[in-house]
TrEMBL record, chains A, B, C, D:
It is found in: Cytoplasm. Its cofactor is Mg(2+). Diphosphate binds at residue 10. Residues 2-298 form the Phosphofructokinase domain. The record marks 125 as: Important for catalytic activity. Non-allosteric. This is Pyrophosphate--fructose 6-phosphate 1-phosphotransferase.
Length: 342, 342, 342, 342
């Protein structure tokens, strides 16, 4: 048995841990051989491979990024894409393909498997934690940890100058990073894409915080939007989901707060720092187990499935279903956390 | 409504987050008053209280330890213990008691509630993660993170000198910390209390690692035991569970490895560092939610219950059941991780 | 003897360590009393004080920010400023004033001491490390550590996507943070305010890095400027030093690199995260020793002096001289580091 | 010109940064070739080499340990050692040798250079910071940072249980790590090898700390010794310097404190964790600059010299002098820090 492996979409701490898990168990327990495909779907499309064996995965567990490289290439949008992939898999004698990626990458895998008979197993990867079939995705815990440490640091600078500090974190369509890091960091306001925010309400929280002689921290997901439609029409853009987005929403909000409350406000945009570097212990554990269970699915011939975390168990779910629905923040959970606002 | 709060047993990162969650929601949403009891069960036993209101819980979220102090006092072993507790609760006009603690502390709460009619709600606390009713307990993720970072560091020193490094981590009766940190840290051998280890097998793994030109890291839980009974009889002691324990098992194993393989071996005992300091973002999230849900249980009059994590939900389970059985490492999970040994 | 203490200007990890050092030694060894002034020069100007004794400084060593608060109030620009300060010092029976701050704060202290006879001792504080009389200032090491960790993380994301990552760090007039964190983080280009950069040269380094199959990291100080004058004239502004500055120079450079090399480029602006949170061990050591030596200067009646680090010794230098000249990066040192560019 | 490089003695974060600095500048600026010798003096003694060029040093800056390996082999104690080294250097066409190491390694380099005409340049390496010719050695800042973070964590566990926590850190003959981490961590007692301690005085400090309602942290260097001679005679051993040492002095002291004060005491021995893992930004900066300046010394033909830090400058000093005298903690500095005891 020869197994191809690829990683697609944005990078995420834990990708290398998945790859290591796959290869260690595949080689040692099942005697499989592996073919690494470079840069996501571009690899099998163009026949671009890298050697993938036990020496290749030594020492990669604590390293961020992906030793296979990544891209957003979509073979279904390429002329002859499916045929070329089939030819290359045949040429490399690859019997099954483990695809590690988000909605886009896995969506392709689901179609290649269901419609074109390519044997695919999926491993979910989204730093935003917004996949409905799994309790958590790897990379999310690392991102939350980095954002929380940043918020911890910003508290002292906010207090020393009695300023508002607005922290913009990742999350275009789901507010999980904002919600977790905002709660863990003791933020006074948390704004998420799932619920349009009222700037006046935010200013009221900010002001009440100052009255208690503390300086407020506002955590805002990059995809959060104000209720006020006009601002949106003027500055917003349509993203790939057809959603209106306000570019630089953190900066925009800081200016609004300044002008409405008269308090100084500063913005910090955490950006790519959240998705790089060594994975947390939690993410190494989760990603490694995803790798171990994905190769078991290959051995079982259980294709078209994706590994997922439910409680403390790794289970398998159909890729197509798993990627069909975004997991957004439940309004009840947001309300639960709201007790700390203001 | 006046609610008493106490923290018992060993300290654990996240205790303050629980207390803050209880008080913030209790005061703001339900208009409750709080009484902090000092040093676990000693507080209600001796009537020793501290003020507990919103100012008292400001800024404590990122702090380790417990602002209430802790102890191992067991009021059921004190003359007249129950009567004295009842008197003090009455004197302080306390209607319900939130008890945050491990098996011992919660066991007392269960009996006080079930047998003596004191209204108790439990919040589980064990850094060892060995409580069967909950997927995780807070503090565990922090401990695993600290141990993993230490193992990361030890790799380089092992490689530079081609030595064996034995790392002893917490875990008297359950190997969760060893298993998670050992996997996350890329250890070559992980030894847990649930399965007696064979020193010759350990030496075989160590030797095979050297053959691949790498230096081995052995992670061992403090409660792990060799199969070899004689060593145990000579050096072991009986702990409070009536289990035989080998004091300093890491040091003992390092010496055995040296004498059997001829390779230099060094031991690091992580000790109390694992349970102190600021909680991880995961633990702050979990502990805060435990606090929020525990006060909801008080409001619902749902006494004799303990909050627990199942998947991503916080649920309530009977305290008595929850503490009846130790959650140990499933042999299948240990076998799953075993692919990385050697 | 009663000693007033104030902290002025931007916050900086280590301020609390200085305050603790002053108070512990002043009270215990010399029997002094202390008066804390709130928010920099605003405190003595308006007579706004906080109690400052041994209990007040307990536990503040690891905390960022300043328990005294800070501001940029300049009493020399206030009507009657000097008279009001003198009156308040007399009213509070303050015999000497320890002023902890940067150029502005210490410049005021120098004039109040030299021209108006107020007994001042200075402690230098600038996160940018740009004071000529001292080898290092506290807060700088913490900022460099935070920036280095961020660069470490960005490497993996750059490699995974073969993108250019531009990291903008603090440093308006001196490139110390960029130079140290860029070197420590293994950046491929480091741009500092002291030397105008040539965008084509930067692009050549970026391109050569890609040729070696690695993705480049460009570290740029916020005050760095391109040689190309037109861009500056169009987008730049004059700062308080009368220097032309290009707001958002990191973002600007990323766009230039994209358009000239055809490679994707992303920007991360570290911002306030660099100056908040717990100080590094180095900064705690340095700041504490500054505090201990500043109170010795008070005891010696050695006013108009500032404590400074030379090698491993703490010495005293005249405040006026110490703040007269900015310590910028020596061209030779920049050239030394340049061996790692490209 | 061909340059040999070796690293000897205990590992130390920053060794790889030195090697990278040497090679990058040597190859790029001077066109040199390099020969890596494996495992300290064993390499040139046995002719055991590894390739050392620019690809070999890519990515090693943030990694602890040494890519060259290390050992304590002393060629002057080997039969024919000098002749064999000379033969191997000739065979590999090595013109100069850069030796990175502590007292022992550099002592050999000094003699080989001065007595046998081998062209050596030294780079000092001691995690204990106990070399008199340089303000700091790399690795020390990393060790202090790790120890400080551990002490930070132990505070909360000490407070929660009102226990004494004794932390044993590295430092056999010099107390620098204990002094810096103890001060930075807010320890209440710091004990160093330079000054025998009085257990009763330690107990008095411990007791006074409890009276202020805080729990004490005692930081002790592994080489610290009590005044009480009898204990020493019973448990102590002679180390390689001929000094009496008390093995496990932290554990010993904890027991003494328990029996004399009646308070619970616990010990944490930080051990090898202090010397492994990624170097701090400070150490990467210092080590890199040592590498850059050492290769300049080779180019200048300035043999028998060692690079050293004086203030912010890298200078050259004769190896023989530099290693002749241990840099111990000045009693005045210890007294300065003593204001925080108790």
């Amino acid at each position: 048995m020869r197994v191809g492996v690829l990683t697609g979409g944005g990078d995420c701490p834990g990708l290398n841990a998945v790859i290591r898990g796959l290869v260690r168990k595949g080689v040692q327990e099942y005697g499989y051989e592996f073919v690494g495909y470079r840069d996501g779907w571009r690899g099998p499309l163009e026949g671009d491979t890298v050697p993938l064996d036990i020496p290749a995965v030594r020492g990669i567990l604590p390293r961020g990024g992906t030793i296979l490289g990544s891209s957003r290439t979509n073979p279904l949008k390429e002329a002859d894409g499916v045929r070329r992939i089939k030819e290359n898999l045949a040429k490399h004698e690859v019997d099954a393909l483990v695809t590690i990626g988000g909605e886009d990458t896995l969506g392709v895998a689901a179609r290649l498997c269901d419609e074109y008979g390519i044997s695919c197993v999926g491993v979910p990867k989204t730093i935003d934690n917004d996949l409905s079939a799994t309790d958590y995705t790897f990379g999310f815990d690392t991102a939350v940890g980095i954002a929380t440490e940043a918020i911890d640091r910003l508290h002292t600078t906010a207090e020393s100058h009695m300023r508002v500090l607005v922290v913009e974190v990742m999350g275009r369509h789901a507010g999980w990073i904002a919600l977790h890091s905002g709660l863990a960091g003791g933020a006074n306001v948390i704004l998420i894409p799932e619920q349009r925010f009222d700037v006046d309400q935010v200013c009221a929280w900010v002001t009440s915080r100052f009255k208690a002689s503390y300086a407020p921290i506002v955590v805002i997901a990059e995809g959060a939007m104000p209720k006020d439609g006009e601002a949106v029409l003027k500055d917003g853009t349509l993203d790939s989901f057809g959603h209106v987005r306000l570019s630089g929403v953190g900066e925009w909000l800081a200016k609004e707060i300044e002008s409405r409350t008269g308090k100084e406000a500063r913005t910090t945009v955490l950006g790519h720092v959240q998705r790089g570097g060594t994975p947390s212990a939690f993410d190494r554990w989760l990603a490694t187990r995803f790798g171990l269970h994905a190769i078991d699915a290959v051995r079982d011939g259980d294709f078209g499935k994706m590994v997922a975390l439910q409680g403390t168990d790794i289970v398998r779910v159909p890729i197509a279903e798993a990627t069909a629905k975004l997991k957004t923040v439940d309004p009840k959970l947001y309300e639960e956390v709201g007790v700390f606002f203001g």
